[in-house]
Amino acid sequence: MQIPGIRQAIGGGLLAGLLALVGQLLVGGILRDVTPRAPLEAALPSMRFIGSSVITASSTILALILTVVGLTRRIDNEFSAEHYERIRLLAIINVALLMGSMLLLIVLSVPVGESVSITPQWYTAAYVVYIVLTSSVSGGFVTAAFMLYYAIDSLLEVVHPQ
């Protein structure tokens, strides 16, 4: 079954994640001449904020999904199978985002300190892993936002057709 809008939602999420990744790589490249750990230290607060924000937003969207399901059950009109599949997919995406954001925050909680045994390559590798995780979570959230929009749109088509 082809769910209308799924390609646009995934495409938007991939584009947003790619733009976030490229932007963070560019910033890391600018700061790379300072010290090996400078890009990592500069990005950590923003990455923590993104992780926390996506956890909050995903939890809120899951509550909204329950509301949408309750509303669709109360309305007498028939909803298409695509509508329910879109909501199911949105719930799956949001649970994955919730887990991905938790993983991001757990990884970010590893202390980055001055140590003789840590090489500059370690800081570079950690920075790349962190920005890939952050960009993935950001892109996934954009996908979830598009999916939520399409779910609301299909609900409004039944409730208030134009």
Form type:
elongated
Give the uncertain stretches in residue-range form: none
Question: How many angstroms does the end-to-end distance come to?
Answer: 25 Å
* Beta-strand share of residues: under 5%
Number of domains: 1
Report the major sheet. none
Structure description:
The chain has one domain. With 162 residues, it is mainly α. The two termini are 25 Å apart. Helix content is 81%, strand content 0%.
Q: What's the helix and strand layout?
A:
Layout (H helix, E strand, L loop, with lengths): L5 H26 L6 H37 L6 H28 L11 H40 L3
Helix pairs in contact: 1-2, 1-4, 2-3, 2-4, 3-4
Summarize the structure.
The chain is an all-alpha fold and 162 residues long. The chain has helices spanning 6-31, 38-74, 81-108, 120-159.
What are the key terms here?
162 residues; mainly alpha
